[in-house]
Here is the input.
Amino acid sequence: MAAKLSGGGGGKFDLGQNSDMNVTPFVDVMLVLLIIFMVVAPLATVSIRLDLPPATQTPPNPKDKPPTYISILDSNQILVYAGKSAAKPSSLAALVYDLPAALAVANPTNERVFIRADRHVKYRQFMDVINQLQRDGYYKIGLIAENLG
Here is the structure.
């Protein structure tokens, strides 16, 4: 609390009026609210317990057909790999013909197709390939991510 010590008339014990705001109660209330929110915040989070199965690698079945890959290169080139055969160059327009030939099954649209892309491929080019596959009726699309580090 402050007092006026000099200035306009008045007696020796006339201190005048102080118009400064006292912020101490305000700070005390804010600190109490901060502590309350710090205690209540962890209780407000929703958690769901999941019992996930352990990740185990199953041995490959020799009867299974090797997967079909579509690789997208930085140079706007699209390659189709059918199993362990050599890569066949393709394009967006030619995927409708090259993919059924690579899959070599009666109903190729029911087969899973994997896509992998170079690191610096533009997102637009990647999405163009996926959209083309969906227009051609391929909805079972898997994305390949390789751990390079």
